[in-house]
Every structure is written in structure tokens, then in C-alpha cells.
Design goal:
It is a single chain. This protein is mostly beta strands. About 0% of the residues lie in helices and about 35% in strands. The chain contains 1 helix and 21 strands. The strands form 5 sheets. Strands 3, 4, 5, 6, 7, 8 and 21 form a 7-stranded antiparallel β-sheet that branches. Strands 1-12-11-9-10 form a 5-stranded mixed β-sheet. The chain starts with 9 loop residues before the first strand and ends with a strand.
């Protein structure tokens, strides 16, 4: 049965940026109104949303270091904090006055698209952004996030992006001829060390140890959901660490590596309110530089 029945609203890309509401653990890249130089190190570097601020209060994961749960995409936060894979921690206000400085790359932390099945690979009930072909809607053609950016299916067909399970769908342009960038950060082969939420003693062999990322996975269970990274340490240990699960980041890059390709103009912009100011893409102007704090 085609999943299109679940979606109540379609957002056209021709007049407004497609928007996704911020949630802890989301993976992001710089957005269309980015004015913060190399705060993220370079364009394409990934970061993780680790904190949401609602007025004067701040919220991190709901369950602590070992608890489950994260903010759902219904937050009314005023700002958010991103920990970039390059090691910088920065606070942003996204959507204020119609200015968008971040785009959503991976929304695995918000759960799986139930009953989904990728038309180009064996993936089922997959997480992150779901992509539905408009021109093949009668056939139920849909792609997982990986296959969409790998140019699977017809590249001259227009798609809808669905960032969250049973959420609104966003109309995006065709991939044929669109700009594609390379993501960088914590990917297989990257060299990493302890991150801001490290809580594992000397499991890595001791302070200053540098490990190698073996692979990335999607965590599902009582400890939370989201991305994880499996890391091998010089001491011989091999363990799995949070990369957004429960809004936590356990490792950070010493040496980032290229990862997957992505279409920046097809990714939804991140907003920190249910009712952000919307703005025509033709009228959008850069926002003020956010404050930055190095880790």
C-alpha cells in the first residue's frame, strides 16, 4: 500500500524552503543563509544537534547519559547548539526573520518510517529522510536517503522529501543537473578521539588515544535511537559510540574523511519553532553570525 495516504500537507519548493523542526540528535550541514565562515571547518562538514534552548532554559537529552528519548520534531525551542564533527560547539537561531543557517542531513533520531521499503535496495522500515517519486506515485516508488543521493531511480523525476515518519512531505526539484556536495566528518576511516559526552573511562586505552571509525549504524532500542559509530582503538578494543543517539556525541574527529554525497538544495532547512517566519527564497538574506565556542 502506498505511503502517500499518510501525509496531510505538501510544501512546494518553488516559493518556500522546505522546513524541518529541530530535534536533539539530528545531523546537519550549513544552510542557505550561512554567514559564519569556517565555523564548521568547511562546507559539507556534518554536525549534531546536542542542545535546544527555550527562552532562558536549555534542554539536552531527556534521559541522561543512559536514558532513552530525545526531543520530537514538535519543539518550540528558540535556539539550538550544534557540535560539529570538526570539534567546534556553536549556538544558532534558525528560522528567525526568515533566515536559515542549517540544513537537515539525517533525521534517524526521530524514528523509522514504518512499513517503508526502498525501491532500489533491501532497506525496510528505514530511518532518516524518505524520498517519494511524484511521477511514479501510482507504483509506490520511494527511496531511502542513501539511494536518493546515490542517483538511484530516474534523475529527471521530481520527488517529495519526508523528513519524519508520517510527517509533511516537501516538494523538491529534480536531481538531474543539481549541485551535489561531499559530506565530511565521522565516516568510516576517520580518526577520532573522545568527544563532549565521553563517559566510558579508559575504554579507548587512555586520554589522547586515537581510534579509527569502522562503520556507522542506526541505534534502535531502550538506550535511544539515532546514529552510532563503531570505533577500533589501538589497545585492541572495538566499541559502538553515540553520534546523535539521545542527543549525545561520544567521539569527535582528529582527521575527518569524505563520506556520502548529498544535494544541498534538496535538504530541508532546520527551524527552531513550530511557527517560524517564512520567506521566499528570492527574498532571503543572510543572518547575523551566531556565537561560537571551541571545545
Amino acid at each position: 500500500e502506498i505511503l502517500l495516504r499518510k501525509f496531510s500537507k505538501t510544501i512546494p519548493c518553488s516559493s518556500l524552503y522546505g522546513m524541518a523542526v529541530a530535534a536533539l540528535g539530528q545531523r546537519v550541514v550549513r544552510g542557505p543563509n550561512w554567514t559564519s565562515g569556517d565555523q564548521d571547518e568547511t562546507e559539507g562538514t556534518l554536525g549534531t544537534v546536542i542542545q535546544l534552548s527555550d527562552g532562558g532554559s536549555e534542554r539536552s537529552d531527556a534521559g541522561g547519559d543512559s536514558g532513552a528519548g530525545s526531543d520530537t520534531p514538535t519543539s518550540t525551542a528558540c535556539s539550538l547548539t550544534v557540535f560539529w564533527d570538526s570539534g567546534h560547539k556553536t549556538r544558532y537561531s534558525c528560522g528567525a526573520d526568515g533566515k536559515f543557517c542549517l540544513r537537515l542531513v539525517d533525521s534517524s533520531v526521530t524514528g523509522a518510517h514504518k512499513d517503508s521499503s526502498c525501491s532500489e535496495c533491501p532497506a525496510k522500515d528505514f530511518t532518516s529522510i524518505l524520498w517519494q517519486c511524484q511521477e511514479c506515485a501510482d507504483d509506490g516508488i520511494q527511496l531511502c536517503n542513501i539511494c536518493y543521493h546515490k542517483l538511484r531511480h530516474e534523475t529527471d523525476h521530481q520527488f517529495w522529501a519526508v523528513p519524519y515518519p508520517e510527517g509533511d512531505r516537501i516538494e523538491v526539484p529534480v536531481r538531474d543537473g543539481a549541485v551535489q556536495l561531499t559530506a565530511r566528518g565521522v565516516f568510516p576511516g576517520a580518526k577520532v578521539c573522545r568527544g563532549p559526552h565521553w563517559n566510558y573511562g579508559d575504554q579507548d586505552g587512555g586520554t589522547g588515544s586515537v581510534g579509527i571509525v569502522n562503520d556507522l549504524n542506526v541505534a534502535k532500542g531502550t538506550a535511544g535511537q539515532g546514529l552510532t559509530a563503531t570505533v577500533s582503538w589501538p589497545s585492541g578494543g572495538r566499541f559502538e559510540y553515540r553520534l546523535g543517539t539521545s542527543g549525545k556525541v561520544d567521539v569527535t574527529c582528529i582527521e575527518a574523511v569524505p563520506g556520502s554525497l548529498y544535494f544541498p538544495e534538496h535538504l530541508p532547512v532546520l527551524v527552531t519553532s513550530k511557527n517560524p517566519v517564512t520567506l521566499s527564497t528570492a527574498d532571503a538574506s543572510p543572518g547575523a553570525d551566531p556565537q561560537s565556542t571551541d571545545i
